[in-house]
Write a structure and sequence with these properties.
The complex is a heterodimer of chains A (197) and B (458).
Chain A (H helix, E strand, L loop, with lengths): L5 E6 L4 E7 L15 H25 L2 H18 L9 H22 L12 H7 L1 H12 L2 H12 L4 H8 L3 H22 L1
Chain B lengths: L2 H14 L35 H23 L20 E6 L3 E6 L2 E6 L4 E6 L5 E5 L7 E7 L5 E7 L2 E3 L7 E4 L6 E7 L5 E7 L11 E4 L5 E7 L3 E9 L5 E9 L2 E3 L12 E7 L7 H5 L7 E7 L11 E5 L9 E5 L5 E7 L10 E9 L5 E10 L15 E5 L5 E8 L2 E8 L2 E3 L8 H13 L3 E2 L1
The chains are: A mainly alpha (197), B mainly beta (458).
């Protein structure tokens, strides 16, 4: 079963170690550390209650989980750095949402600048169609073909269920512009879905 | 709300639910220096005064020569110097590490779509006695999956193997990913101090492996040598034992075998750090649904007991043992050697080959490490195929977490009714309390890790 086996010994290539320093415990869980600052406690608590929703929001905008997680992590790190300078702690969720929307814009801008992969994805198998659902795939694909502003408006209005005023704050535009952008986005989305059928 | 608005809302929400609450990565805040913990950063090169360079080079050369000489005398079989004391196996190791599973990805291979889960999206280090979280460790980017984990016997040294597994097709729909099997794995080392402080370093091993080579690793009980097994499946198979502190490696190479060599990440070494257990794992070359349906439990599995001190020894000249399962059952999996090297213990049962709705049965089968004879069957469990499965409708799991030197006392996860529970097995008596089990939160955390994690090591 084994066949011929050779025994080689005394290889001289030395393994190298590179010390990268102590690993700090993650402040997400209670590790009993007293040295965590009040800001870290507050930001961690906010992360616990809002990370899921914000990651999903970024994921819908970007279609890429890893980038979505990076954007959300960066938003919370930004909040942590700016904690002492925040004018209004009560409005911190709006601040985070706007950071995530801005982060998504940055990711999309970078994608446009860098060459995309030339690899062609394989055609979906019957199994994949069953798994994902034809209609949902068409809707999400159409949404991702919309201009970024229209996509943001639709995601914030219909996925995050934000009223027009909060959508406007997250996008950094006026309420009137939210209305018109949403209407144009819906019209374009409807057109695309009809064409796909 | 129009029909289109309603459709948009419901379908975006359904799409977003692919991100589950359990899969959210922990927050990594910058420290005082602005550095994010757990992420390896490349250091900026330092500028040294020109006159210091020849002095530093001479000092480094002297240190390498001295270090190599010292390690050559410490490596078993290569000198008469003192070796680290054997672990006593009187108590559980001080700390353990477990992997946290990630998403399930769709990928295609030869025109067929498959799904596979990320086994180690990140991992957690906990104290055994208290269950306290000591650290959360993420793979260094762009690596995204801890596929291999192993530990020494004291629970203070861990080696982690990271793979750069899933790659995305940019902006592509449907969400089909490319499985990357060819990027070299990256290895990290964790050292945990007595106060629970965790030191992380990257290891550059003189053995390069890719996920395609089906690697497995096992750290020696004293934590100074790492065994790496890979290859096979129609290609050469190799086992290498690498000295982590020095620069020596011993290799056993076997040209073109049908099986792949498999090391259990727990219980692969005897307590004296001399014998290493290797199992021949069958590889299906052309798997098809028809072939799988016609598949029968293999009648026998072979294990090799490699004497790592024997000079000039080879795999073929070692001690391959044939382990036969109890009648009608599958061959033992996750073969574990007792620290004194007298017995081999593996999971056997009918769950893999029984009809879909049971009954499923299983137990631990104990074999003689000298002859391969089946000595006894321990901790049997049965699922009747009707009531809820053990593990809350999941899978029954029997996992050996620890053994005393002779194997007469085991700490294991064992299916009881519809739960997988942590307990200590003394002879045929299974109990959820008693030495060396931890108490209170330490017990709860360890049981949770053994129930849910892909790998739990110490």
């Amino acid at each position: 079963m084994e066949g011929d086996v050779a025994h080689l010994s005394d290889f001289t290539g030395a393994p190298q170690t590179r010390t990268t320093g102590p690993v700090a415990p993650c402040p997400q869980e209670d590790t009993g550390r007293a040295e965590l600052s009040a800001a870290a406690h507050a930001v961690t608590a906010l992360y616990r209650s809002n990370a899921l929703g914000l990651t999903r929001l970024a994921f819908i905008m970007l279609g890429d989980r890893q980038s979505a997680e990076d954007v959300v992590q960066e938003a919370f790190c930004g909040l942590f750095r700016a904690w002492d300078r925040l004018p209004d702690e009560a409005n911190v969720l709006a601040y985070l949402r706007a950071s995530v929307v801005n982060g998504c814009r940055t990711v999309i801008r970078r994608r446009k600048r860098t060459p995309q992969s030339l690899a062609v994805p394989p055609a979906p198998s019957a199994e994949a169609s069953m798994l994902v659902g034809e209609e949902r795939r068409a809707t999400v694909a159409a949404l991702r073909r919309l201009p970024p502003r229209q996509r943001e408006a639709l995601v914030l209005r219909y996925f995050a269920d934000l009223p027009e005023q909060e959508t406007a704050e997250a996008m950094g535009i006026s309420r009137g512009t939210v209305k018109s952008t949403t209407a144009r986005g819906l019209a374009a989305l409807g057109r695309m879905l009809r064409e796909d059928q | 709300m129009t029909l289109l608005e309603h459709r948009l809302r419901s379908e975006l929400r359904a799409e977003a639910e692919s991100i589950t609450p359990e899969s959210i990565v922990p927050l990594r805040l910058p420290g005082e220096t602005g550095r994010v913990p757990g992420v390896l950063r490349r250091r900026r090169p330092r500028r040294w005064p020109p006159w210091l360079i020849p002095l530093a080079a001479a000092a480094a050369a002297a240190a390498v020569i001295t270090g190599t000489f010292a390690v050559a005398h410490m490596l078993p079989g290569s000198g008469q110097g003192p070796r680290p004391a054997d672990p006593k196996y009187a108590t559980l190791p001080a700390n353990y590490v477990y992997t946290v599973q990630g998403d399930i990805y769709n990928y295609t291979s030869h025109g067929t779509q498959y799904s596979a889960g990320v086994t180690g999206r990140y991992l957690k280090v906990r104290s055994t006695a208290t269950g306290k979280l000591l650290a959360t460790v993420l793979p260094p980017k762009p690596y995204n999956n801890f596929q291999l984990v192993t530990a020494d016997a004291s629970g203070t040294v861990f080696v982690l193997g990271a793979v750069h597994d899933w790659q995305r097709y940019a902006n592509a729909l449907p969400r089909v990913f490319r499985r990357n099997q060819n990027t070299l794995m990256k290895f990290l080392e964790l050292r945990i101090g007595p106060a629970g402080q965790v030191q992380q370093s990257s290891l550059s091993l003189p053995v390069a492996v890719t996920p395609r080579q089906q690697p497995s690793i096992a750290l020696s009980p004293e934590g100074t040598r790492l065994a790496v097994a890979f290859g096979g499946g129609g290609a050469p198979a190799e086992v290498a034992v690498v000295s982590l502190g020095g620069g020596q490696v011993r290799r056993w190479v076997s040209p073109s075998v049908s099986w792949t060599p498999q090391l259990n990440y727990r219980g692969a070494w005897t307590s004296d750090g001399r014998t290493l257990v290797l199992q021949e794992w069958p590889v299906l070359r052309n798997p098809s649904l028809q072939a799988l349906r016609q598949d029968q439990p293999p009648a026998v599995t072979s294990v090799h007991l490699i004497d790592t001190l024997a000079a000039g020894g080879t795999l073929a000249g070692g001690r391959p043992l044939a382990l036969r399962p109890p009648a009608g059952e599958s061959v033992p999996a996750d073969v574990f050697i007792t620290p004194d090297g007298t017995k081999l213990i593996g999971n056997t049962g009918k769950s893999d080959f029984a009809p879909a709705h049971g009954p499923w049965t299983g137990e631990l089968s104990v074999y003689s490490a000298r002859t391969g004879a089946l000595l006894q069957r321990l901790a049997p469990w049965k699922w009747n195929g009707k009531d809820r499965r053990p593990g809350h409708g999941g899978s029954p799991r029997e996992v050996i977490a620890w053994s005393n030197p002779s194997g007469s006392r085991l700490v294991l996860l064992h299916p009881v009714d519809d739960l997988n529970v942590l307990g200590v097995l003394t002879g045929h008596t299974f109990s959820r309390a008693g030495a060396p089990l931890p108490q209170a939160s330490g017990y709860q955390q360890l049981e949770y890790a053994l129930r849910t994690a892909g790998q739990v090591v110490w």
